[in-house]
Amino acid sequence: MINLVEQSLQHLRLGVFNVLPSTSLDYLSPEDFRLLLNGICNINVTTLVTYTTINDESETTVRINQFKKWFWSVLEKFNAVKRQDLVYFWTSCPTLSASEGGFLPQLLVIIRPADDQHLSTANTYISRLYVPLYSSKTILKLKLKYAIKTKMFGF
């Protein structure tokens, strides 16, 4: 098996070291290298809060703080797979890409005007999640789950 892919692996190695100094990977463990390539799979909500900006376009600023609490509370109650699905829905990548300054690209939630009829949508190119100002935490949770299932993203 190694003989079949040896030439491909050699070219891959040459390509990596064409971009990086050959000594730059000397002190990385296999897990460190995997994290650099794939990002973090276990999505921690506290980490998401730290690296997420929330902008309000709802025209109703009275309920915004309550909405933010609902949003993070709903994400906290999602299981690991559902959180990963949400990050995929939001960014088109199932993991958060680690960098020195946090996660790239910067995550952004846009709170849209109040509307219990529409699902949340996402612009994965710029990692924006558009969430209507839902009237309750229950509706927010339900609509986020539906949006993730229907994959209303990608524009």
Q: What topology emerges from the helices and strands here?
A:
Elements: H1 2-19, H2 30-38, H3 45-50, E1 52-56, H4 64-77, H5 80-91, E2 97-99, E3 102-104, E4 107-112, E5 121-123, E6 128-132, H6 137-150
Parallel strand pairs: 1-4, 4-6
Antiparallel strand pairs: 2-3, 5-6
Helix pairs in contact: 5-6
Describe this structure in words.
The chain has helices at 2-19, 30-38, 45-50, 64-77, 80-91, 137-150; strands at 52-56, 97-99, 102-104, 107-112, 121-123, 128-132. The mean pLDDT is 85. The chain is elongated. It is of the alpha/beta class and 155 residues long. Strand 2 and strand 3 (102-104) form a beta hairpin. Helix 5 packs across helix 6. The longest helix is centred in the N-terminal third of the chain and has 18 residues, at 2-19. The strands form 2 sheets. A 4-stranded mixed β-sheet has the order 1-4-6-5. A two-stranded antiparallel sheet has the order 2-3. It has 6 helices and 6 strands, in the order H-H-H-E-H-H-E-E-E-E-E-H. The protein folds into 2 domains: 1-39, no CATH class; 41-150, Hect, E3 ligase catalytic domain (Hect, E3 ligase catalytic fold, 2-Layer Sandwich), CATH 3.30.2410.
